[in-house]
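Section: Multi-chain targets

For targets with more than one molecule, the full set of components is provided together so that the structure can be written out for the assembly as a whole rather than chain by chain. Components appear in the order listed by the source. The example entry contains two components.
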Amino acid sequence: MPSTSATGRVVAVTGACTYLGGELLRRLEEDPRYGRVLALDIRPPALTPGGKVEFVKVDLTQPTVDGELATLLQQNGVDTFVHGAFLSHPTHAVEWAHELEDVGTMHVLNACAGIEPRRLVMVSTTLVYGAHPKNPNFLTEDAELRGHRDSRFVNDKLRAEKQVQRFAKEHPDVEVCILRFAPILGPSVSNMYTRFFTRPVAPVMLGHDPLLQFVHEQDAAHALQRAVESRATGPFNIIGKGVLPYSTVLALLGRVPVPMPPFVARQISKVLWATQLSGSPPSFLDFLLYLCVADGARAQRELGFLPRLSIKRTVLDFLGVAPEDGATDVARAQA
Amino acid sequence: MTDDDDPHDPHDARAPRGGAADDWYGEADPRVPDASPWPERDLGFYGDDVFLGEEAVVPEELGGVHSMAPPTLEDAANAELRELERRVEQHRTPAFPIDLRRRLPLEGLWRRWRSLAMWGRSDVVDDFGRDPRAGARWEWLFEFLYSKWFRVEALGLANIPDKGRALLVANHAGTLPYDSAMVMHAVRRDHPARRDVRPLVEDTVFHLPFLGPVMNRIGGVRADPENAERLLQKDELVAVFPEGEKGMGKLWRDRYRLQRFGRGGFVKLALRTNAPIIPVAVVGAEEAAPMLGKVTWFAKNIGIPWIPVTPTFPWLGPAGLLPLPSKWYVQFGAPIDLGRAYGAAAAEDRLLVNRLADQIRTQIQTMIEELLGRRRSPVLSAFLG
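Its structure, encoded as tokens over all components, is:
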């Protein structure tokens, strides 16, 4: 491979086929400040021909991938590494998911430890805070990461994040930035929440109605782009404007709520998950019982990221309905 | 985030930042390539709503967006494929449910269902979950309880500032938090500025099925120091009941005897946020739901700390949870400005915090005694006023 010219930054992106990875590639392609972009994934993303993005096949579940990655980073003179190879849906293939997320992150960090790229950006989620009855209404970045007692989906991400935090301590020369995204909604993204809200009916924990928080896909992609160009370090919550009760989200979407006591819902969910009829594991029900809402002040202050779209607009955009007064609704609430 | 001086630093290629939170996203910013990333869609007939089943009815060319839709065939090279699809469509055996759905006026039904589901709630809530429309929905009930049932007399409302933060500290009683509702309603109804009080609700009540979400929608916030601090920083009126669960679980024989005031968290809060403390004495709540005893057996299994035994509950079933019509007084005391007297650093002085908490407790106890002294006979006038 040709060595880097001094024309701009060289970025490597894992998880190039995820929504955020693809959006980032598209935005970096348009930005003249970036010389070359390496898209790493197991299958090629949709690329514009003749662009500066190159696809390199990298499978993070292979046992010796860290060596390969290190050579790749060295040869191309990568200065910014974006690690976004995380699953957006829970899967029944828990072993594979563990290899990809937890061990895959280890491989990425092994490779980065030798090369020490200038900047490492990791894609995480606010689910790592866990839904807990003792959560304050707004979780700051300093809040304890509780994870979830029996969710592999959340805990693999949590372990990956803890590894990255340890790496940041051991390598103070690398600017490590962790983005904890609130659940992403939008017309083109696909993840656990979009699947959940696509169904015509939705379970409701009888008598419980926690506040939910989402971030619009465009805002999320912008935040990631922002994190790549910024020099800020540390964890950041990337959230949308405003919160809404779960019941109101269902009403806006026109979904039919099916109220049931939590223990009944848990049993039903266990059966549906075991028979692979439902895409959300039983542990997800806790997020319908308790709060898991993050505070985005730090991202605004240090990263310069301000979400543009309110939660209502995000939900309606996901539904495919153009809101009449989308821009002003949060201002109305605060007035 | 500091900019260093190296002009060749690729990180610094963009315009100077710092305080750029407001301007970097604006249309004027040429760095942002996609000021309007989603296409302006003319949804036409489907403008108000979109069907949401497995087969999205909105055609792609109308801009119907379905999150799980397969990749669209937009290339001209795919004309052949489209033609094939069209022919397949022509010869398809009509699948019963799909065609039935298309003939039935389901779009209209769906729209009606959505407006029905949105009844009594607004599509915007504030940061802590208060829904203005849901609050208005329960207003009549509070008004009835306030003026007809409890005949509340609110005294000293002038002590509450018209604007700016303040921490209302009140005694707590009754099996259900009627007292926080009445303090809230008193300020909203009779205070000249009609301010909204945000009561802090203890965990046991906040996580109760049905009651918790309703409390949250009308303005209650889970009692958590971070929440309280955030509210006070936003210059809200916050009501705190430092006795907490112990205050609510007082037996009839302990009525109007204030319990320990938590761990003095409210004093720390007032010192840290420089908010004046307004002591509040509520008299009447004890008689509204006199707790004769409490049963802890089985209570934990249904998620509550105890099952109260009152003259009416559980004998009359859920109707027994209705309060007795006692006569209430709510007295707001003069504000105590701890921040000015001791400074924010005093929040770390545990001895001082505890002493101040106890002083305020004593003051509220005195206010209660005075209010009780207005009653002629201990039991009868508790109801007749």
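Chain B touches chain A through 62 residues (CB under 8 Å).
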